[in-house]
Amino acid sequence: MEKKVIIALTCFNRLHTLQKTIESLMECKGIKKVPIYYFADGGDNTDEVRDYISKVKRSIDKIFLQSENLGLKRNTLRAIYKSFEYADKIIWLQDDMEFSKDLLEFMDFTLNEYESDEEIMYVSGYTSVLHHSLYLSSYTSEALGIWKNKFYYTDVIDDTQGYRQFAGDMFYDYLLNAKKKDVISVYLNYSMYKKQGYCLHPNKNKLRHLVTDSVNCKASDIKKLNQNLYEGFSRRIDSGNLNLVRRYSLLKKTTRWISRILN
User: Fold this and answer.
1) Under a CB-based contact definition with an 8 Å cutoff, are residues 90 and 25 in contact?
2) Which of 40, 51, 107, 113 lies 20 to 30 Å from 199 when distance is taken between CA atoms?
3) Are 233 and 102 contacting, i.e. CB atoms less than 8 angstroms apart?
4) What SS3 class is residue 28?
5) Which has the closest alpha carbon to 23: 85, 97, 87, 76?
6) Distance (Å, rounded) from C-alpha 169 to C-alpha 189?
7) φ and ψ at 62, to 5 degrees?
8) What CA–CA distance (Å, rounded) separates 37 from 140?
9) Tens digit of pLDDT for each residue in 167-205?
10) Both ends of the chain: CA-CA distance in Å?
11) Pairing of strands 207-211, 62-65
12) What are all long-range contacts of 221-226, with beta carbons under 8 Å and residues at least 24 apart?
């Protein structure tokens, strides 16, 4: 198994956004040494995407083609589990993103620095507002750094009220919708809740989404969400945020322990 990090990039049939994603990724510092593993889902209108990734594939990269259409949830899980056969740390990316040039530097630092912290289960490249330091949250986001030894996944939703207390009403509503639509990010959130873990975010945003109105779009149709990209990042977690998270985690563990005794 390789000890260095690899990128697991899931894609389907959005050629123009994928091209923008790869172009942006190739501008990231350190990309020459980081393998990209492409996980191309099956289905209609996928030939152009498959031709494109075969052309841009480097000698250190790999391509995994899927004959049937798995959908984002199952294709993502396939990408994560397969990538862990080659590396113990991965970065999961999607085919509709642009990145700051130091995304990989941020991921490399945090995946190494916080590898032994059992409560930090993911590292995200996204933050919605500027912070003075890194911070923890109860939700995963985009461009996820994942450790093999800390990855846990379940799609058995058996404690919605507990999750509501942990993540709040907004993510509780997302969870209810995700059960109908198989949205992978919310299942990852719920799995993180089951382990009482957290996601680490940068103090400055490292990615933004590219959105289109249709699959068969032109490059000129691609829109950028109003998300600024920033270089530079803090190397410490906000102490107030960390203390709050630790106290909350201890409270939850104590509550569960008392509940088991009483029952």
Assistant:
1) no
2) 40
3) yes
4) coil
5) 97
6) 13
7) -135, 150
8) 21
9) 666 666 766 666 556 678 888 988 998 898 999 999 999
10) 45
11) unpaired
12) 221/16, 222/16, 222/17, 222/20, 224/98
The amino acid occupying position 62 is K
List CB contacts of 224: < 8 A, sequence separation 6 or more: 98, 208, 209, 210, 211
Please tell me the distance from the alpha carbon of residue 160 to that of residue 138, in angstroms, as a whole number. 14
Query: Which domains are delineated in the chain?
Result: 6-152+195-262 (3.90.550.10)
Residue 87 tokens, joined: 């590396």
Q: Which helix (H) or strand (E) holds 244?
A: helix 239-262
Buried/exposed 77-96: b ≥16 CB within 10 Å, e otherwise: bbbbeebbeebbbbbbbbbb
Residue type, position 142, single letter: E
Read off the pLDDT of residues 9-55 as tens digits, 9 standing for 90 and up: 999 999 999 999 999 999 999 999 999 999 999 998 999 999 999 99
Give me 246's structure tokens.
Answer: 């630790």
Residue 197 CA to residue 192 CA, distance in Å, equals: 5
